[in-house]
Amino acid sequence: EAGVAQSPRYKIIEKRQSVAFWCNPISGHATLYWYQQILGQGPKLLIQFQNNGVVDDSQLPKDRFSAERLKGVDSTLKIQPAKLEDSAVYLCASSSVRGGQGAGQHGYTFGSGTRLTVV
Amino acid sequence: GENVEQHPSTLSVQEGDSAVIKCTYSDSASNYFPWYKQELGKRPQLIIDIRSNVGEKKDQRIAVTLNKTAKHFSLHITETQPEDSAVYFCAASYSWGKLQFGAGTQVVVTP
Q1: What angle do CA B102, A78, A46 make, to 5 degrees?
Q2: Are B2 and B96 in contact (CB under 8 A)?
Q3: A48, A43, A71: which is closest to A58 by C-alpha?
Q4: Nearest to B44 among A43, A102, A105 (CB)
Q5: Averaged pLDDT of chain B
Q6: Contacts of residue B32 in chain A, CB cutoff 8 Å?
Q7: What's the pLDDT band for A36 if we cut at 50, 70, 90?
């Protein structure tokens, strides 16, 4: 089974520039998550999709971050404009969990992440 | 929302000794508690998990215990080996599959 694919693996940009990350989940996984992991901290959920609808974006800084999941498969996360504090690893995860279920469902898998450095 | 606290932040153990990491959670509705191991520059990897209807689970040298009343759960690693050196994260799931992570524990196993 192919894993969660993310690209690019690394990105260095200057502050105030824009950047986009891409995620392709495991085939058939309806739920997709974007997490932000700042160095030395645990991952923090930014946004969760169920198919192509947003389930939770309460921790997404909407003034600069946006995400979409067209057709309920691939997803992109964008930052515009970037700030120094956005430097982090952005992890995508997918699972087959459905509404009302917890995360303890088969297939919760993380991608390798995109390491963003804002200078 | 859920809040997960994890202790200690760093843990140094001699090879062959045991390591214990403790986490507490705030939302009594949380019902799934996974533990992840993350090596430098790599993705978090699930090493063991426990559901709220179980008090203890073991997988070879790794075990997890859950006390729902006290809202805490722990990871136990016995007979530690150098390859156990990594950052370990606990997490709690309370709604729609999203995970609330602890801050992580850096485990260093010295030969």
Answers
A1: 25
A2: no
A3: A48
A4: A43
A5: 94
A6: 102-104
A7: very high
Best residue of B7, B30, B43, B52 to probe chain A, by most A CBs closer than 10 Å: B43
Q: Which residue on chain A is closest to B31 by alpha carbon? A: A102
Cβ proximity of B85 and B108 under 8 Å: yes
Q: Does A56 lie at the interface with B, CB-CB under 8 angstroms?
A: yes
By CA distance, what is A107's nearest residue in B?
A: B46
Query: Could you tell me if B107 lies within 8 Å of chain A, comparing CB atoms?
Result: no
Mean pLDDT is lowest, of A61-65, A76-80, A89-93, B51-55, for B51-55
Gap from A76 CA to chain B (nearest CA, Å):
18
CB B18, CB B74: distance < 8 Å? no
The model's pLDDT over B69-90, given as tens digits with 9 standing for 90+, comes to 999 999 999 999 999 999 999 9
Q: Which residues contact B54 (CB under 8 A, 6 or more apart)?
A: B66
Tens digit of pLDDT for each residue in A38-70?
A: 999 999 999 999 988 999 999 999 999 999 998
